Amino acid sequence: MLLELRGVSQRFGGLQAVADLSMTVAPGSIHGLIGPNGAGKSTVFNLITGVIPLTAGEILFKRERISGLRSAEICRRGIARTFQATALFREYTVLQNVLVGAHRLAAPGLGPALLWSASYRERERRARERGHALLKSLGLGAVASQVAGQLPNRDQKALALAMALATGAELVILDEPLAGLTDQEKAETTAVLRRLREQSLTVLLVEHDMKAVMGVCDTVTVLDHGVRIAEGTPREIQTNAAVIEAYLGAEEPGA
Amino acid sequence: MERRAAAPVAGVGLIALAAATLPLITRDSYYLDVATTILMNLTLTMSFRLQVSTGQINMAHISFMGIGAYASALLVTRVGLSFWATLWLGALVAALLAVPIGSVALRVSGPYYFLITFAFSEVVRLFFNNFFEGLFGGPSGLVGIPKPGRLLGLVFDGKPALYGLMAVLCLIVVVALVRLDYSRFGLTAGAIRQADLVAETLGVNVFRYKLTAFVLGSFVAGLAGVFFAHFRQVLHSSDFGLEPMVLLVVFTVIGGTGSVWGPVIGTIVMTLASELLRELHHYEILVFGAVLILTMLFAPEGLVALSGAARRRLRRLRGRAPAQAGAGLAP
């Protein structure tokens, strides 16, 4: 297993956001995390990426414990993420955003920057090339020198994904990658996700669009009130009684 | 991106040229004094803006100048070291003290960071004022600090020589900090300022970056402090108190913190203004306050962004989309 959550809990004061959650993400899969509003999906993402600390349990990535590490260190080990409200460096150009994502693979630190050595310039040049190639592959080649804050929603979403990929991550965690997109744009994004899976990247995503989730995911985990109520293939989830129960009055999975 | 490669060379060249030309135009000690002050202020504002570029407003920046100044003054007068050694030692003392202080202060951010550093600066000022009077001179100040003395057959005691020394120091600082700003370090620093959480989840150790900027900035402030001590030859704790710190902030913000060139413009304009307003004595800071408010209202990105803003407006009038938004301050 690439990612493993063991009995993970998170409590904000009296509110149990996530309770004793265990789940595994298989390498090379697209794994969906769904559930009604307030089910704790985003909290799970924040716990995995070290944005908030867990109250109990542990998280393993490639059999190594990552819970308790800094977010930067978790990213260094191979997990990158996007945020629900698309988070970018709005004043920077699209290419600069991706270059920040390539932080670890470039030449960070004070010494190389001050000395301006040949190897520093070479690494930066390569980072730039890789950045351009990555942008092109995600359909952002034409807007590389535009300011990120002025891009349309679709391009901002794609850029957030590009930044996560630029870190060289093996697992990317996407918080609502399809929110606010048109049907056409959703189809394009899911095609990109399938292509990434072919390149043996693992994707864990939170998404409200059930049709898209069921169409693209290999495995789906369902959360309700911070508790895992089901896990399985999309077909199994769609017929699961507990899942239908949880969604009653909200929206029906697969609808 | 190509434009970014030409700007630093041109900018640094322009500053170097201006600094080299001045003594050819005038040998008047008053003008040399003002020019020396501009260069000293510039090292301070440039290093302050290095810290601002990572999203921290360090209200104790002036204290590290003070630490460098007192350290060098004491090492020269009590230990008998040469100025040329204490120039670096004083800066090093400031940088070394910055490590634990920065490590504590940078546990918090935003207004809390502002308050912690402000409190620290008052502690330092009171320490120099009230403790070890035999050492720091207490309220009457530390006097009898010698001029730099000779190096390589040159004697550094006249105004032109001291100006030349400060110009060389300032240019070293400007070259280093401009280079940093246009490097990956600057890119990452700006990313932290815009969205530190996103930077962190992309693998940037935000704390380490901020601490690096804090320590390096303190080293440069310490360097300016050493020069200040042997230039003025007298030190008072109030030289490193709230008022000069506020002026430092005003100089930097009026120039604009979004660009590495902001402090250059701000420092030159405001140091000159401060000389012209000398007659006003204590009311001077009142005028600066008004100028700061006007800047915040009408040019929040500082004087340096005005030309860019004008260009964008012109382009919009011609019906073309803006190519690049100005990089402004978001503390």
Index terms:
heterodimer, A: 255 residues, alpha/beta, Rossmann fold, 2 domains, 6-stranded mixed beta sheet, 4-stranded antiparallel beta sheet, 10 helices, 10 strands, B: 331 residues, mainly alpha, two-stranded antiparallel sheet, 72% helix, 2% strand, disordered C terminus
What is this structure's SSE topology?
The complex is a heterodimer of chains A (255) and B (331).
Chain A lengths: L2 E10 L2 E11 L4 E5 L6 H8 L7 E6 L2 E2 L5 H6 L2 E3 L12 H8 L8 H6 L2 H20 L15 H14 L4 E5 L7 H16 L3 E5 L3 H7 L2 E6 L2 E6 L1 H5 L2 H7 L8
Parallel strand pairs in A: 3-8, 3-9, 6-7, 7-8
Antiparallel strand pairs in A: 1-2, 1-4, 4-5, 9-10
Helix pairs in contact in A: 3-6, 5-6
Chain B lengths: L1 H24 L3 H24 L8 H19 L3 H23 L5 H20 L2 H4 L12 E3 L2 E3 L2 H23 L2 H11 L1 H6 L4 H27 L9 H14 L6 H15 L7 H15 L7 H12 L14
Describe the overall structure.
The complex is a heterodimer of chains A (255) and B (331). Chain A is of the alpha/beta class. Chain A has helices spanning 41-48, 71-76, 94-101, 110-115, 118-137, 153-166, 183-198, 210-216, 234-238, 241-247, and strands at 3-12, 15-25, 30-34, 56-61, 64-65, 79-81, 171-175, 202-206, 219-224, 227-232. Chain A folds into two domains: 1-78 and 171-255, P-loop containing nucleotide triphosphate hydrolases (Rossmann fold); 89-168, no CATH class. In chain A, the strands form two sheets. In chain A, strands 6-7-8-3-9-10 form a six-stranded mixed sheet, sandwiched between helices. A four-stranded antiparallel sheet of chain A has the order 2-1-4-5, with helices on one face. In chain A, a hairpin with a 2-residue loop joins β1 (3-12) and β2. In chain A, α3 runs parallel beside α6 (153-166) and α5 (118-137) crosses α6 (153-166). Chain B has helices at 2-25, 29-52, 61-79, 83-105, 111-130, 133-136, 159-181, 184-194, 196-201, 206-232, 242-255, 262-276, 284-298, 306-317; strands at residues 149-151, 154-156. Chain B contains 14 helices and two strands. Chain B has one domain. Chain B has a two-stranded antiparallel ribbon with strand order 1-2. Residues 321-331 of chain B have low confidence and may be disordered.
